[in-house]
Design a protein that fits this description.
The structure is a single chain. This protein folds into two domains: 154 residues, Rossmann fold; 189 residues, Dihydrodipicolinate Reductase, domain 2 (2-Layer Sandwich). Helix content is 38%, strand content 23%. The chain contains 14 helices and 16 strands. The N and C termini lie far apart (51 Å).
Length: 364
């Protein structure tokens, strides 16, 4: 990689990709914008005064040739289950480090299988360089070090507005990814193995350090895979604060959740998603934060717990991606398959402005 320079930002014209590009410029970086859509790239490149490259993931030769010029690529084109394998295969050939911003457990599971190939190629494969899973992965490793014989890990996430106290909406890309996974039910890790359970089959109230506990539903966050890699804790569950109506809907749809994959239903859902705002506004991001509760326990019932407070998840994603990109550009890129915490340790997240971590009593 001695002759390589800079990094490629693929899917740069999406909501989160553009946030990363804008913050990169503020940090003095000049990423090369990339994606399939030439018109969108031209508009973005003109607005940001950056170079761009039109690259089709299905054109293997073009992709490998393009990646050969860069130290790293940040893949922002989701759902990542459809893009990661092609990009990673090209990274291994071109000896280019791979980052993405996925929270899809399937992506982590797939890329784990490339660990040996990545080591042989001298390449780092680090999915989940954004909001999910950097903070939660670091929190999991922090708790594991406090209780080395922990055999259970619980993580719960709550995003709220500092103005209204209510939860915030998600980007269109996040909504599409969430809907794609609904038909499979919810995944947990049990005795080291992934297991499917019904949607919202478990509901718990968590204390996030606010005025009242928040109702959270079991969800399939990427931590069921990434935290297992980082900690080897065999039993992992992940939760998210959801409106009661959504929890009730999940429980109602369980017997017929397979219909979500029916083409007319998919089209209807995608049309509804396209009507959503692109993502939270700047004001909404600046006036919101995320709380992540983490708890580990061992066979004797001993527990340790802590809460991470971070900026809004989308703003945090831009910050953590560029934190890792800068380390990578400076030559600090441990080869092989990595999670954020396995590569850079439990305190990586504390390098981001506005992040705090406090010990708390476990939620009962």
């Amino acid at each position: 990689m001695t002759n390589k320079e800079n990094f490629l930002l693929y899917g740069s014209y999406g909501y989160t990709g553009n946030l990363i590009a804008e913050l990169a410029i503020k940090q003095g970086l000049k990423p090369i914008l990339a994606g399939r859509n030439k018109e969108k790239l031209m508009q973005q490149a003109s607005a940001l005064n950056l170079e761009y490259r039109v690259i089709d993931l299905d054109d293997t030769a073009q992709l490998e040739q393009a990646l050969a010029d860069y130290i790293a690529v940040v893949n922002c084109a989701g759902p990542f289950i459809h893009t990661c394998q092609k990009m990673v295969a090209a990274c291994l050939k071109s000896q280019t480090h791979y980052l993405d911003i996925t929270g899809e457990y399937e992506v982590f599971e797939q890329l784990m299988q490339n660990n040996d190939a990545a080591k042989n190629a001298g390449v780092m494969l680090l999915p989940g360089a954004g909001f999910d899973v950097v903070p939660s992965d670091c929190l999991a490793l922090h708790l594991k070090e406090l209780l080395p014989d922990a055999n259970e890990l619980v993580l719960a996430i709550y995003a709220l507005s500092n103005k209204s106290g209510k939860g915030l909406g998600v980007s269109r890309g996040t909504a599409r990814t969430m809907m794609e996974g609904m038909s499979s039910g919810t995944m947990i890790r049990e005795q080291g193995t992934l297991k499917s359970v019904p949607l919202s089959s478990k509901v718990r109230a968590f204390d996030f350090g606010n005025e009242k506990n928040r109702l959270c539903s079991l969800v399939s966050w990427g931590d069921i895979s990434s935290a297992w890699w980082s900690t080897k804790i065999p039993n992992i569950e992940t939760y998210m604060s959801l409106p009661k109506q959504m929890i009730n809907f999940n429980q109602w749809i369980n017997p017929i959740k397979f219909i979500i994959n029916w083409a007319p239903i998919k089209r209807f859902i995608n049309n509804k998603i396209n009507q959503l705002p692109e993502g939270p506004t700047l004001d909404e991001r600046n006036n919101s934060e995320t709380k992540i509760y983490g708890e580990v326990s061992n066979a004797t019932g001993k527990k340790e717990a802590a809460i991470l407070t971070t900026p809004n998840g989308y703003s945090l994603t831009a910050a953590t991606v560029l934190l890792i990109v800068n380390k990578t550009l400076q030559g600090n890129a441990p080869v092989g398959y990595q999670t954020p915490a396995s590569a850079y340790g439990k305190d990586l997240i504390l390098e981001v402005d506005g992040v705090t971590r406090v010990a708390v009593h476990p939620t009962l």
